[in-house]
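MODEL INPUT / OUTPUT PAIR
PAIR INDEX: 1
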Amino acid sequence: MAHIDYYFATVSPNTYLAGTRLEEVAARHGATVTYRPLDIMALFARTGGIPPKDRHPSRQEYRLQELRRNAVKAALPINLKPAFWPTNPAPSSYAIIAAQNAGGGNLGALVHAITRACWAEEKNIAEDAVIRDCLSAAGFDPKLADAGLLVGAETYARNLEDAVSAGAFGAPFYIVTETDERFWGQDRIADLDSYLAGTL
């Protein structure tokens, strides 16, 4: 059985555009997934990336065009300039870590609910009320928004270190741990699917 380490950021538009396709692929191949939210700006700084606001205007313009096109392909609504972005990704990330530790809900649905709140619903995912609503919608106890904050902070920091060590440099980033096969971007999920099927 394959295992996938899934590195992502709750403020990443491409994490949002991944939807729940990773979960569909994992289910199809009987793969397990570990969700590893991290600080994407810190990952950029550690691996040679540049935050969107610091990129050349041509790159910024192209990024927005790509996001629009990819949203259409994914059949997902998107606001290219959301009201609450950038925002603090730590609280929503801690909640995902707490939910993964607690179990009992749908982690893929939780990640999608949080990223959708940012990129399509004009909500501030740093706010406890928004996080609680997302937890509830995904079948988790909303009190997890306030649980395990120390463990959450430690895991969040460790995820960054693990990502750098594993060769991840963006989000979303998928690594098949048994073979160290790496896939960067929501537009590589089909490749991940083919790889797990043994055809790539």
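PAIR INDEX: 2
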Amino acid sequence: MTGSIDRVVVVGGGIAGVSTVGALRSGGFDGELTLVDAGEFPYDRPPLSKEYLCGERTFEQIALRSPRWYQDEEVRLINLSMVTALRPAEGKVELGDGRLLAADRVVLATGGQAARPPIAGVDSRRVHVLRTADDADRLRRVLVSGSTVLIVGAGLIGAEVASAAVELGCKVVLVEPTSPPLAAALGVEVAAWLHALHADRGITTVAGPVVSCTEVSSGIEVRIGGHAQARVVDAVVLGVGMVPETSLALGAGIEVDRGFLVDSGQVTSNPAVLAVGDPARCRGRDVPRAEHWEAAQLDGQRAAATVLGAAPPVPMAPWFWTDRHHRHVEVVGRMSDAERTVTRGAFGGRAFSVFGLRGDSIVAAVAIDDSIAVRAARRMIDRSMIVDSASLADPAVDLRKLLRG
């Protein structure tokens, strides 16, 4: 990227956007730095399906940064505002109120919207999604003790909402056509064990696609393919993924294909525009978007390095986490790449891990309430280490010693 870069505008205040401005300042960028966000302030989204939904944390407590941080870092935060158009050829960004911001580089961190599949009746007021704090506020008002909620999708969001709803005293029906859900990410064994936890907590799990939702006097009637009897519940929650918000890029003639297409430095088809976070997808690689918190954070750091002309962060094995029914799950690498697995600890016990191996090298790991194991596994994956399966499986063997070789 050429030319003087004195003014950077970041569009979107999720973790990807905040990571970008933070990395720019910590990397020495001393120009004008603006963050435009549609909300009251940038906030963290993982708590929306957990502590925030359960009322254990307030809106202010999920802020990504304090108001003072933006002042100290000299980041101009324009909140409650939308960018309506990009004008990269003019070096301008247009806001909804008509204001124009000067920008030598624009970083799109626009996230996306919760997906609403083409199911009859999903526009009902009784059908909810969970992507924003406003969504969580609306959902929390219906997740009252004694109510019945049907959740469509047993992936990360669906399972987390199901767990929260049970904690709030709801009766829960969880519908998922795939059995077991998340098998590609977790491996079939762990995925099946995790899915079975729902039944242990009194959740009814149903296999099949949702065909229609119809409001009735007593709630909303849900018909599920392969099941003769419809279910009448108080509310429905859709947990079936997200749709990337790419309208700004399309309006500016930037290449889009199932998200923003970017290079290894997060640069789009227009060299003055970068893109980060859930909607970004690496050009030339037919792989799914990495829709996880740390992946978005690292995108922001890479984008900042590109703007600064600095070295990007060192690549690491992908990592994400989820919580359900008081169990903390961490995943590193890709279990779908594994040829075989090794279990450390008693499978299903208080804390255990499952390592995925290809040959004698670890390519992935899933840890249940065992963060030490997943951290060690990540370092082993990053080093392409050869490991002894017996030592890996033995809880008495210190994984740090294996790392030292």
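PAIR 2 NOTE: The longest helix spans residues 293-308.
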